[in-house]
Amino acid sequence: MELTYSAATKKPGKIWLLNFAVSILLLNYILSASPASAEIPGRIISLAPNITEILFAIGLDNRIVGVTNFCDYPEEAKRKPKVGGMSTPSLEAVVSLKPCIVVMTTDGNPKEFEQRLRSLKIKTYIFRARTLTELPQGVRDMGLELGAKEKADTLARKIETAINNPPTPPFTKGGRGGITEASQKKRVLFIIWPEPLIVAGPGTVIDDAISILGLENAAYRSKVSYPKYSIEEIIRQSPDIIFIGKGHENIKEVSKRLLKKIATVPAVKKGNVFYLSDTLYRLGPRVINGIEEMAGCLK
Hints:
The protein has 11 helices and 9 strands. The protein starts with 13 loop residues before the first helix and ends with a helix. Strands 5, 6, 7, 8 and 9 form a 5-stranded mixed beta sheet that branches. It has a 4-stranded parallel beta sheet with strand order 2-1-3-4, with helices on both faces. It has helices at 14-33, 49-57, 91-96, 111-119, 135-145, 149-164, 205-212, 231-237, 251-261, 266-269, 287-296, and strands at 44-46, 64-66, 101-105, 124-127, 187-193, 198-199, 216-217, 241-245, 273-276. The chain is α/β, with parallel strands linked by helices and 299 residues long. The protein folds into 2 domains: 44-164, 3-Layer(aba) Sandwich (Rossmann fold), CATH 3.40.50.1980; 176-296, 3-Layer(aba) Sandwich (Rossmann fold), CATH 3.40.50.
């Protein structure tokens, strides 16, 4: 920078000093706003079970100071202080834990709650991934924000590998239950709960997993993600395979009455009814296991 001098004093002029001061202030602002120099949040509150699972998976469990009542995996998450439900978090509970950041999701957390947090100068981060294909980048972005870039990248690559190279269900002649014809997509119905009868429709992680495995979701035409179904609709759809997800009760006992009512559909007649865990219920690290579990039922 060229110096200007006052003819009378032979010292730097006032204009130069003002420009220099402004330059220093601008440089300090740029450095403080840079992600590389931003302070890593030390106290994290998670407002969704899938976010909690991701935080644990990328090694941030020691920085989690609060979770929702539904954050039950891994086991250590149950011992974290609770701040209420996903849709009904307690503002008082959140504030009392003095978080550096509250991690939220677009799928379940109220927008109004984020606005209230911001009005109190509490930093928030919104996890925006809603599908399996969006999950890896969502993990990367959140890891970068929370200072866990390397572990987040590692997890994202594992998920991408599972999505891009899924196990292939062996739909060959002589396969279990008589499932044949590899070139023909098998129609799958995933039952979330038998009574009332709720199934997994479009826009769900389960629907993504079904497609990744080369299957067809019998409920893909539904207008909602988790539609209520009737016995008549199942019979009409005539699924080749039925998956029933883990519930809070003995799901096999609860499902017996339903299976008797739909005994004529191909999936029940051929013994292609399988019970799965809850690994595909959340958009998180365990989707890898869920895809493998679903494919493994068909071997």
